[in-house]
């Protein structure tokens, strides 16, 4: 029975919101947690050269060339939280919370150090096999992101990153190595993390460096096309090698609201949403929408799209839609309004300040209902199962003299979002595979490179300057999430 039925039993309703087998868990990325950046034959990757500090965003956006670490900057990913050596301890903590699923990524250059090696690095394959086996031993389903902001530096030097069509074959070499090794152990795969972030952080997302006089918009759309074709081919390969697997796409999601009900603002919000849906339309439907072709035509963009590319896209549509959601966004067609209310919030994606919402310490607007709006928009558009693979609150946590960490703000944020997710399932009827919050243990922030911007249920003793013991401590939210999972989302108090 649904909650608008006056005769429904509240407890039965609460217990029925989340389906049996719902995949509760958490999500991390290799380059934000593993460290060990040169261990066991690992090659250099993009995040290894993106520094902490004021140069971080210029490098991430492809505006400042940096293809090797230097002695001037610090690089948080080099040590991160050293999960490479402490994964058993961390997975045991995830298991203590009752995780059903752990989303992790595989570092491309641990498997193919140069990005397109003919022979995979056995040490890298063995490491991830041990991580996956440890998850399975605890009854945790691994959800593997194939490429999470992780372009090999040697392929940037060789091809210019995803500017070049030859990246597709290199990516498929990587896929072949990991699909072959982990067939039968990993059911759920994602081809690219937040694929639309290529538009906002081209170097971090696709290894793109812009040259003087280059048509940056054309470069980004061309790289997007190559990633979309690579994704389609990877889906087909995965289904061939692992017939029972499910392969999803992954979007940095968040509905755009019009700042006012002026028709111009409504249209501006629709156009802003299209920047994101361009990618998922192609991955989920197997073709580009007509407006995308017209937009590229008006901009003079030459896509380098062949008939065979279009055929591959049709054959390689994804099985489910996964996405990150941290906040909704707001936009306007009026330049004066944009200038007055512009508030980055996310250093990568511009949004206007929504006067109806509060914001986190980093300016990210908090909008639980926006999650439900986004979920409905995605399902209405694609009619494929959804998977929320990132959702969380970055905040400064205080360690009390007795070692405890009280984080009611994190519980409040997650509770409100999980409730809206439950409404989308129970009241709107959306099929949702699972929820892996970001990130269950404190890790390096992708956008800022900070450690003080903490998301985790598990505190890691490390500061922005790299100082600390790396000791793990349970926060209050650890015990709250454990109860949420144990009751399959019934008890959110």
Automatic annotation (TrEMBL):
One of its GO terms (cellular component) is cytosol. The active site is at 390 (nucleophile). Keywords: Glycosidase, Hydrolase. Pfam families: Glyco_hydro_1. One of its GO terms (biological process) is carbohydrate catabolic process. The keyword Hydrolase applies. It comes from the Bacteria. GO terms for molecular function: beta-glucosidase activity. The keyword Zinc-finger does not apply. Gene3D superfamilies: Glycosidases (3.20.20.80). Belongs to the glycosyl hydrolase 1 family. This is Glycosyl hydrolase, family 1. It comes from Subdoligranulum variabile DSM 15176. The lineage of its organism: Bacteria, Bacillati, Bacillota, Clostridia, Eubacteriales.
């Amino acid at each position: 029975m649904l909650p608008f039925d006056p005769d429904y039993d509240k407890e039965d309703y609460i217990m029925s919101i989340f389906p049996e087998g719902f995949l509760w868990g958490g999500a991390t990325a290799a380059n934000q947690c593993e460290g060990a950046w040169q261990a066991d034959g690992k090659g250099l990757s993009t995040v290894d050269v993106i520094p902490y500090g004021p140069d971080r965003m210029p490098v991430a956006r492809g505006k400042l060339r940096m293809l090797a670490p230097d002695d001037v900057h610090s690089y948080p990913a080099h040590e991160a939280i050293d999960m490479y050596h402490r994964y058993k301890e961390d997975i045991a903590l995830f298991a203590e919370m009752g995780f059903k699923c752990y989303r992790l990524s595989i570092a491309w250059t641990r498997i193919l150090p140069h990005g397109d090696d003919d022979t995979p690095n056995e040490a890298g394959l063995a490491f991830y096999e041990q991580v996956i086996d440890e998850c399975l031993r605890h009854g945790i389903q691994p959800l593997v992101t194939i490429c999470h902001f992780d372009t090999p530096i040697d392929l940037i030097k060789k091809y210019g990153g995803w500017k070049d069509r030859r990246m597709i074959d290199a990516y498929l070499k990587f896929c072949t190595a990991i699909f072959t090794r982990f067939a039968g152990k990993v059911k759920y795969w994602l081809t690219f993390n937040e694929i639309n972030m290529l538009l906002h952080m081209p170097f971090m997302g696709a290894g793109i460096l812009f040259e003087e006089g280059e048509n940056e918009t054309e470069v980004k759309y061309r790289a997007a096309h190559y990633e979309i074709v690579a994704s389609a081919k990877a889906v087909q390969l995965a289904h061939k090698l692992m017939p029972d697997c499910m392969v999803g796409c992954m979007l940095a999601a968040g509905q755009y609201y019009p700042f006012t009900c002026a028709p111009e603002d409504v249209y501006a919000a629709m156009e802003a949403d299209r920047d994101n849906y361009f990618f998922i339309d192609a991955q989920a439907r197997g073709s580009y929408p007509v407006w995308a072709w017209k937009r590229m035509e008006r901009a003079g963009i030459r896509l380098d799209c062949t008939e065979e590319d279009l055929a591959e896209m049709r054959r390689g549509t994804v099985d489910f839609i996964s996405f990150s959601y941290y906040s909704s966004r707001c936009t306007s067609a009026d330049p004066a309004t944009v200038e007055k209310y512009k508030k980055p919030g996310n250093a990568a994606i511009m949004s206007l300040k929504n006067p109806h919402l509060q914001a986190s310490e980093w300016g990210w607007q908090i909008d639980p209902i926006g999650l439900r709006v986004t979920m409905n928009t995605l399902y209405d558009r694609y009619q494929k199962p959804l998977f929320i693979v990132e959702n969380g609150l970055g905040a400064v946590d205080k360690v009390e003299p007795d070692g405890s960490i009280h984080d009611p703000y994190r519980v409040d944020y997650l509770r409100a979002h999980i409730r809206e997710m439950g409404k989308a399932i129970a009241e709107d009827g959306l099929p949702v595979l699972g929820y892996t919050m970001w990130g269950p243990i404190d890790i390096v922030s992708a956008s800022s490179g900070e450690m003080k911007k903490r998301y985790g249920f598990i505190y890691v003793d490390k500061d922005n300057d790299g100082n600390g013991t790396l000791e793990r401590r349970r926060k209050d939210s650890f015990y709250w999430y454990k109860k949420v999972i144990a009751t399959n989302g019934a008890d959110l108090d």
